[in-house]
Design brief:
two-stranded antiparallel ribbon; 5 helices; elongated
Amino acid sequence: MKNNGLSLFLSIVALVLSLIVFIVHINHHKEAKKSEAVSKSKTLKIAYVNIDTLLNNYDLYNILMLQLSKKQDEYQKKLNSKLLSIQRRSYQLQQKYSQHLITTATYQSEAQKLLNEQDKLNQWQQQKALELQNDQAAISARVYDSILVAVNEFNADKRYDLIFSNNYTATGRTLLYGDKGLDITDTIVEILNTKHNISQSDSTSAVSK
C-alpha cells in the first residue's frame, strides 16, 4: 500500500511539473512574439515628401499652372472687354433717349437686345469658369499620378516602409512630425524634373523628324 501511495504521489508531482513546463513554454512563446513585434516596429523605415516644396520646384506643375493662369487671364480680358462694351452702349442708348434722338419703341428694343447680350455673356462666363475648374482638376490628377510614379520608382528597392505627404487635408496634416533626415522631397523633385526633361526632349526629337 505504501508503494502504491508513493507511486501515486510521484505521478502527481510529475504531472504538475509537466504543466509548469508547458505553461512556461507558452509564456515564453508569447513574450518572443511580443519582442518580435516590438523589434519590427523599431526597424520601420519612414520618409515623407513636402508637397508645398515639391510643387514649387516641379517644372511640369509650374508650366501647367502658368498655362492655366494665362488662359484665365485671357478669359478675364474678354469678359471685361465685353462688359465695358455693353456698359458703353447702354450709356449711349440712355443719352440718345434722354435727348429725344430715338423713339420709346426704339429705346425699348435696343435695351432688350443689350439685356439679351448680357444674359449670353453671363452664360459664357459660367461656361469658362467650369472649363477652368475642369482644367485645374485635370492638372491635379496628372501631377498626383506623376508623383505616385516617381515615389514608387524611388522606392523600388523597398528602402522605406512608409512614405507620407505633409499636405493639408480636411482633418489637418497627414504628417505631424518628420525628421529632416527623412525628407526625400529634393530627390523626388529631381526624378520628376528629369523625367519631364526627357519627355520634352523626346517630343522635340519627334517633331524635328
